[in-house]
Amino acid sequence: MCKAFGFGPNIHGRGELSMIDRAKKTEQAGSSLIEVLIAVLVVSVGLLGTAGLQLASLKNNQSAMQRSEAVVLTYSILDRMRANRDVAAAGGYDMSLPADLANCAAPGNGSLAEQDLTEWVAEIQSALGAGVACGAVDCDSNFNCTVTIQWDDSLSTGGNAAQQVVTEGKI
What we know:
The chain has 3 helices and 3 strands; from the N terminus they run αααβββ.
């Protein structure tokens, strides 16, 4: 048998390991453990990075969805004003942004314009957050209207506490 290839009797002939064989066996076991620990560390850092990217993605997707909803809501009130065009041109839909979004209040339910504005403000607060979102409308006598929606978008990456979408249209 050949000892050079790792099988057969050892040089002592008694089935015992020599000091060199024991040292080789100990070194191999220790390096395997270190390799496993380093692999676990690398995988852990990778998973933490992936989790961070996922969190940033969720925040930014939420912000993008809110912007899209704000655009849809600006067109919602423009369509309502087109159905009540003369009142809109006379300023019946005009509403300004409050200094504090927590104080956003619709005018009430008296006329059709007031009902439209009340429903619109409720939709804004439902979609973008009650107490952190509000809308404004400004129309002139030539049927040119500017609709603004403002909300708190500070939770997104680089977000703005006074994020605004402004839509100008002719009714």
